Amino acid sequence: MDFMIEATDLTKRYDDLMAVDSLNIGIKKGEVFGFLGPNGAGKTTSIKMMVGLLRPTSGKVYINGIDVQKIEKGSIGICPQELMLWENLTCKESLNLMADMYEIPKTTRDPRVQKLLNDLFLQEKADTVVSKLSGGMKRRLNLALAVVHEPEVVVLDEPSEGLDPQSRRVLWNYIRSMRDDEGKTVILTTHIMDEADQLSDRIAIIDHGKLIRLDTPEKLKKKIGEGDVVDIKLSDPLRNEDLIHELEDQKDVISVHEVNGRINIRALNAVGKLPVMMQTVEKLDLRVADISVRQNTLEDVFIELTGTGLRE
């Protein structure tokens, strides 16, 4: 297997806290690799160790077969969730400055900067100062600055956070093109399940510092979470526990979880179970504000594995 990044027994301990616990993971060359986990699960710490920003307590990381501490730093590009921009420079000036920091010759720099402006739909704002850009444009510029030196590995931390649908589509297309046209390896962390599902070739789900699943989105959805999901919102969410307690014991109900004030019931033949579920609701003298039945999603897989929603 041709891995771009290989982590072996990667561990990070802070006094009594085990942030990352013996993580073994291989990220293939030229794939978009999704990293999912609840807040505090250890995914940011794991990624920082993988790209050499943080020394592990124990374990090894190799990038393209070379110890991460010995690689050329220019081989990695990091696009942080926080915008790292020079507000008083124009888009083009910002990209030129970043390219100069990496000592990219002008003959290479100029066409590269122009291509980035075109690819990320910033060409019309090339000479606009950053402080006058919209939020979506700033986030796209943030990404352009992370890849102007053409790194082999690109780390994207919540790249679509707060974006409108149009900007998100531009970003998603560009992420795909980095993989498909340039052969880059992309590590993606996101709270947007649809983003992880649409973009990732494989997804690692991490919780309490441990890797709990690693597979393609399709296989994760097939392997975990048999049956459909009934999603119920009660008029009085304070009574959720009462209903959960009753539903857990019903025949063919696989699992019941509370997520963001709603109740997710996974069941075989979910549509056929609805009358019995509604009888239970009436028996407890509860009122339903909203109800839906849907197929298994990546978010359902995540909840099934971690018992929590991604934002909790």
Explain what you see.
- This protein has 10 helices and 14 strands.
- Helix 5 (165-180) links the parallel strand 7 (153-157) and strand 8 (185-189).
- The chain is 34% helix and 29% strand.
- It has helices at 43-50, 91-101, 106-119, 135-147, 165-180, 193-199, 217-223, 240-247, 270-283, 298-306; strands at residues 3-14, 17-28, 32-36, 58-63, 66-67, 76-79, 153-157, 185-189, 202-207, 210-215, 228-234, 253-259, 262-267, 288-294.
- The longest helix is centred in the middle third of the chain and has 16 residues, at 165-180.
- The radius of gyration is 23 Å and the shape is globular.
- It has 2 domains: 3-221, Rossmann fold (3-Layer(aba) Sandwich); 226-295, Alpha-Beta Plaits.
- The protein has a 6-stranded mixed sheet, with helices on both faces.
- By secondary structure, the chain is α/β, with parallel strands linked by helices.
- Helix 2 packs across helix 3.
Condensed summary:
By secondary structure, this protein is α/β, with parallel strands linked by helices. It contains ten helices and 14 strands.
Report the CATH topology name of the largest domain: Rossmann fold
* Parts with pLDDT < 50 across at least 5 consecutive residues: none
Shape: globular
Helical fraction equals 25-40%
**What is the correct CATH architecture of the largest domain?**
3-Layer(aba) Sandwich
Strand content: 25-35%
CA-CA gap between termini:
35 Å
Number of domains: 2
User: How would a textbook summarize the main sheet?
Assistant: 6 strands, mixed
Read across the widest sheet, the strand sequence of neighbours is 6-7-8-3-9-10
What is the string of helix and strand elements? EEEHEEEHHHEHEHEEHEHEEHEH
The CATH homologous superfamily of the largest domain is termed P-loop containing nucleotide triphosphate hydrolases
What's the Cα radius of gyration? 23 Å
